[in-house]
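Subject: Ammonium transporter

B.,
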Amino acid sequence: MYIPSPSYLNTGDNSWQLTAATFVGLQSVPGLAILYGGIVKKKWAINSAFMVLYAFSVVLITWVLFGYSMGFGDPMKLGPGILGAIVGVPHPVLNSLYQQGQASIPLVNGAMPSFRFPQSTLVYFQFVFAAITPGILAGGVLGRMNFKAWMLFVPVWSTLVYSVNAFMLWGGGWLSQLGAVDYSGGYVIHVAAGISGFVAAAVVGPRMVKDRKNFSPNNLLIALAGAGILWLGWNGFNGGDPYFANADAAAAVLNTNLATALALISWTIMDMWASGKPSLVGAINGMVCGLVAITPAAGYVNGYGALAIGVAAGVVPWISMNKLGRTKLFQKVDDTLGVFHTHAVAGALGGVLTGVFADPHMFEYLSTKLGQGSSVTGWVYGNFHQVVVQIEALLVIVAYDAVMTWVILKLIGLVVPLRATEKELHSGDIAVHGEVSQEVEDDDEYDVDAGKVVAEY
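Prediction pasted inline below.
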């Protein structure tokens, strides 16, 4: 029996949106999971990958029950002024998935046409963004956080931090009303994850001294495979955010790859200048910084803007990691994978540079009135105010996320310990999960004793 599509549904837009969402989902599972599993010390490979897998699963449940509506629903009236534009009213969305996709997406100029796909498509597309954010945050606390504390932290953080960020910038909230823009998550996802990961690293405490001194990747080729999935998965990350299979989606994909390639090359050159050797780990860091920095700008800048952002993304976070990262504060806080530098710094850089390079001729989509649509004008084109509001939004996200992350962790710490036990810190995966990533025989990291794997400390 043939069942016709609803009159509003455009099969091309719907197909692309679901495909883009799947690309973004692959960035988490398996992309980020195997990147972490390969780039950490062998004894933490399972735990690191599992933290991402768990986050992906639990966020889906909280997202459909209340997270989505908090990020994209009707505003909750907490008080006058900005208090009525911070977060949406929480409620489940499971009974309205067949309706036409709706969300209070703010516009800088013009009116968005109605989405041409069902709400279930929009809910899933936004979920995969919400899911990868705590996975990125995990990079700051790998190698010592109690997995039970992580199980509590992820759904609470996603609800009280991510959904609020999403509403303020994407759901028609306070920051979007100021005129701030974040094309695909430079602030909502990457600054949030980088700042929160850094705060979490400070609250949970550092890894064991021996782990901090020697945390060499256990399998760089596996890490590279995960990084490659991230890179190509980003085509859905940025290509899906016009919400239409249109020209801006294509431009965003090309801009994403241009900036990423140049950031990778720039970071590699910086490594060679400093040490005389090109580093694969460094190249992966440069790749990630390029992806992150172009994310808030991808559909708003032209190709020259993307190239400029790519160079900046390869140089500024490199300086941050290799110079600022050696200062007393950053040596004290054990940010395992440097998410502050690769995500917070790169995301902030991209967000501010969006205010610099945004080209008013780049239309995210056209409205029903010919010639009108969503575009942003940057400083290069005569609008310095865009830089100002981008900085204002950045400061709000940093302050709110840092404070809320600290509060959430302190409260969870009253229920379960935030740190793994001494035995778990010594033995890693075998003590936490009863599993290891590889069979171990005469390994310099493990001894086999009565059927158990114990690290040499």
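The first strand starts at residue 446 and ends at 449.

T.
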